[in-house]
Amino acid sequence: MEFLKRAYSRVVHLIHELAKFGTIGGIAFFVDMGATNLFRFGFGWGPLISAVLATCISATFAYIGNRYWTFRDREQSGLAREYALFFLLNGIGLLIALICIGFTTYTLGLQDPLSYNIAKIVGVAFGTLFRFWSYKRWVFLAPEDPPVEPATGLPEAVSPRR
């Protein structure tokens, strides 16, 4: 029975984290898409530089939101370390989006706003899957779980000090 309670608690916690991550991500997505379209079609900048600059802006917002709201209960391993890893992993997520944009723009030759935005959305979706997994794995670390007994899955009994 204890195993089911722990499993349920973990699932509920994951759902809450996903909801918060999705909220921050949704806001960051609108910041990203707005800035990208402003840079690309308002200022006439190139498709890739527009995406890079907009992602830098939205990633800064996302870091702050995820650090201080989504993953606030996780260990804080140092702002510089977290921020550097966060932006490295965002760079990989950005690369995924740039591949989609570059393929659409340069390989398929589609230059219109609709094609650009569809490519951007597809790239952001794939990048988001990577980012959620990687943030949990390397940036916002889980607090140390107590050791468990392999046979029962329950925390090990603490031996009394002598």
Structural key phrases:
75% helix, elongated, single chain, 162 residues, mainly alpha
Describe it.
Helix 1 runs antiparallel to helix 2 (47-70), helix 1 packs antiparallel against helix 4 (113-139) and helix 3 packs antiparallel against helix 4 (113-139). The longest helix has 41 residues, at 2-42. The protein is an all-alpha fold and 162 residues long. The radius of gyration is 20 Å and the shape is elongated. It is 75% helix and 0% strand.
Q: Topology, pairings included?
A:
Blueprint: H1 2-42, H2 47-70, H3 79-107, H4 113-139
Short description:
This protein is mainly alpha-helical.
Global shape: elongated
Number of strands: 0
Residue-averaged pLDDT, rounded?
A: 84
Largest sheet: none
Order of helices and strands: HHHH
The radius of gyration over CA amounts to 20 Å
Helical content band: over 70%
In terms of quaternary structure, the protein is: single chain
Question: Low-confidence runs (pLDDT<50, min 5 residues)?
Answer: none
**Count of helical regions:** 4
Secondary structure category:
mainly alpha
Measured by DSSP, the beta-strand proportion falls in: under 5%
What is the straight-line distance between the termini?
33 Å
